[in-house]
Each structure stands twice: as C-alpha cells, then as structure tokens.
Specification:
2 helices, mainly alpha, 68 residues, 2 strands
C-alpha cells in the first residue's frame, strides 16, 4: 500500500482530532474525508466554480478554512 506523509499545523491537527472524537471516527478516516473535500474543491475549481470549507469549531474570525 502506498503511503503519504502529510505536514499540517498544530491547529489543523487538533481540529482533525476533535472532529474525529466528536463523530466517533478514526483519525485516518477523518483525514480521508478532508482529502476528499479537497479533491471536490479542486474539481469544482477546474470547472470555474469555487467551494468554501468552513470549520465551525474555530472562532468566527478564523472559521473560513479556505476557498478553492
């Protein structure tokens, strides 16, 4: 099986862990879902659309994680 290495900020890693715990998911599944969202965002962008990813756990100023 191919392996990948992800580098992420401490805040992002904490958020992934919190999401996993809150939903009773493994960290690996949570990362997989996050990567799937990024793939959807990339596809939307290639078609001239955009997608925003929002993290409700962050304070309102930092809630928007990214626009793709």
């Amino acid at each position: 099986m191919e392996q990948i290495t992800l580098e992420m900020s401490d805040e992002f890693a904490r958020n992934l862990n919190n999401i996993a715990k809150r939903n009773g998911l493994s960290r690996a599944l949570t990362i997989g879902r996050a990567l799937a969202l990024l793939a959807v965002a990339e596809e939307a962008q290639s078609e001239g659309n955009s997608i925003a990813i929002v993290d409700p756990e962050l304070n309102p100023i930092h809630r928007l994680v990214g626009i793709f």
